[in-house]
Specification:
The protein is mainly beta and about 220 residues long. The protein has one domain (about 25-210): Jelly Rolls. Helix content is about 15%, strand content about 40%. It is built from 3 helices and 14 strands. Strands 1, 2, 3, 6, 7, 9, 12 and 14 form an 8-stranded mixed beta sheet that branches. Strands 8-13-10-11 form a 4-stranded antiparallel beta sheet. Strands 4-5 form a two-stranded antiparallel sheet. Strand 4 and strand 5 form a beta hairpin. The longest helix is centred in the N-terminal third of the chain and has 14 residues, at about 35-50. It is globular, with a radius of gyration of 16 Å.
Length: about 220
């Protein structure tokens, strides 16, 4: 493991979120880049090299698909998270992820006072890997879930599309940037990581979530 002295509470930049990025039917707040440069780099390389990444799996149109993108799933206990037709079992937290979780919880405490109990990590090796339109609306996440998305590595376009109107919003997520989706966002909006041939570097995304017991 890397020297975790870099990952103390002093590395977090006390950011205030921008206004709601969505025009209606949900709330998305951009906290901007929330870590100092040295800590942001250290987190990225620690996650890239020490997370047990594995290819994601999905069932689409009755066919089993293995993605180029890699994932990891962590939690307070061995939560079972089912999405895209496949089930994942959470690994126990490591020191790095706990440090990140605690700092994110501190930054967004007013909108998520109870904190998070799990985290899904995605590794995109380059711009040809992305995530299709979807919403994080599984029953196990509860209604009006608060999801904190933390990005490391290459800058990528993150887009929203309203389920009914088709209206879109997009933004560029940068190295160390924190975005929080809450309210009715998952009920009304899809989101995606757009593919591009212009990005050749990896990106890591962490989405901190709260699994609901018995859902």
């Amino acid at each position: 493991m890397a020297n975790l002295d870099l990952f103390d509470s002093e590395t977090a930049v006390r950011a205030a979120p921008d206004d709601n990025l969505l025009p209606y039917d949900g709330i998305v707040n951009d906290y901007g880049v929330v870590f100092e440069a040295a800590a942001t780099d250290a987190y990225f390389y620690e996650l890239l090299n020490h997370i047990p990444w594995r290819h994601d799996e999905a069932v689409m149109f009755g066919k089993h698909i293995t993605t180029a993108r890699k994932v990891a799933w962590y939690g307070d206990q061995n939560f079972h998270y089912r999405y895209s037709g496949a089930t994942r079992t959470a690994l126990p937290w490591n020191e790095t992820l706990l440090a990140l979780k605690q700092q994110v919880e501190t930054l967004i405490q007013p909108v998520s006072p109870t904190g998070f109990n799990s985290c899904l990590l995605n590794l995109y090796h380059h711009g040809n890997e992305g995530m299709a339109w979807h919403s994080d609306d599984e029953a196990c996440l509860g209604k009006n879930a608060v999801i904190a998305s933390l990005s490391f590595g290459a800058t990528r376009k993150f887009a929203f599309k309203h389920r009914r109107t088709g209206e879109k919003r997009d933004m560029l997520l940068q190295h160390g940037q924190l975005l929080v989706m809450r309210g009715s966002t998952q009920s009304h909006w899809l989101h995606a990581i757009m593919k591009t041939t212009k990005v050749h570097e990896p990106r890591i995304n962490l989405t901190f979530r709260t699994m609901v017991e018995g859902a």
